[in-house]
Structures are given as C-alpha cells and as structure tokens.
Amino acid sequence: METIYRPGNVVDLIKRLEEDLSNTQNISRLGRIPEPRAGRKYRELLLNMFLESGSVFAIIVVDYKDGARRTYTFSGKVLPGQGAETLLDLPVSAEGHVVEKRGGATRIEVYNPYVFPSAKELFKLISEFGEKYRAADYEVYIDKMMERINLDTLMDSDVGG
Fold first, then answer.
1. pTM of the full predicted structure?
2. Four-CA torsion 112, 18, 69, 65, nearest 10 degrees
3. 3-state helix, strand, coil in the chain (%, to 5)
4. In what order do the strands lie in the sheet with 2-9?
C-alpha cells in the first residue's frame, strides 16, 4: 500500500472529485454514505448532521468501468469560539483523503486540513458540489440504462400493436 501526502488542502480534494465527476463516460457507479432517504437532498442530511453534533462526515464512492474505485472521505468539526449565535457562524476545520484501489494495489492520498471561516462557507461549497454530483449521478444512470436497452431490438419489435 502506498501513502501520498498532497500539498493541497481539502478544497483541492473537492476540486479533484469534481474533475472525476465530469468524466461520467468512465464511471460505472456512484455512491454516498450516509445515503439520504428518497426525496431528501444529501446536503440537507449533512447540514442536519452538523446542526445536531457540530460535526459532519461524508464518503463519496466512484467506481470506474475499468474496475478501479476511488473512495473520497471528508470530515469537519466546529471550532468552538465566543460571540457566535449559531453553529453555522463558527469556523470549521475540514480534512479529507482519497483511497484508490486499482487491480491489487491500494493508494491513499492525504490532503491538508483547511479551516473554513464559518460553517456557512463550508455548506455553500457543499451545496455547489451537490449540484455537480446530482448531474453526474443522473448521467451515469442514463448511460447505464442505455447500455441495458438494445435500441435495435426495440425498433424491430412490435411494440404497442
């Protein structure tokens, strides 16, 4: 197993994940932990987790068509201070890493922590990322459905009479 310490911080790790999600033609499956219930947005789940505990934890799994897997892990915790009205007004220390498995090899890339000036800033970034994740997840889903549907068979069959 190889461990690499990257010079960037957790914001750079999020950008790397966004780049991965922009290449949906290479992705076979996406997953998130914790997984929200139907009709609920992931960012709402993470926000509620934070508002209850002062901490947040998220895992994004990206499986590739070539058999590789990248598991992105992010965590954040509030840095208690004076003068804040809510947890959202306090700074948050966030960190993250990615584990890549390809063939029989495993590599961990660790990124430096980053302190967001307020939890509001962190959740603004999460919200922006959430839209990109949702679009990528939809594209991967559509691609998977198109692979399962043989359009030639549909066109040749006597559908609907």
1. 0.84
2. -160
3. 40, 35, 25
4. 2-9, 105-116, 92-102, 69-78, 55-64, 27-33
Q: What is the pLDDT of residues 33-91, one digit of tens each?
A: 988 788 888 889 999 999 999 999 999 999 999 999 999 999 999 998 777 889 999 99
10 in Cβ contact with 113 (< 8 Å): yes
Residue 30 burial (CB count, 10 A): 19
From 142, 149, 127, 141, select the one nearest 30 (Cα to Cα): 141
Angle (CA) 133-136-140 rounded to 5° is: 135
What are the C-alpha distances in Å from 91 to residues 55, 103, 118, 134, 158? 11, 40, 4, 27, 62
Mind giving me the DSSP string for 75-136?
EEEE---SS-SSGGGS-EEEEEEEEEEETTEEEEEEEEEEEESSHHHHHHHHHHHHHHHHHH
Q: Which two tokens stand for residue 144?
A: 């998977």
Among 103, 32, 20, 100, CA closest to 67: 103
Asked whether 131 and 100 are in contact (CB, 8 A), the reply is no
Residue type for position 80: P
Task: Provide the phi-psi class of 19: left if phi over 0, else alpha when psi is between -120 and 50, else beta.
Answer: alpha
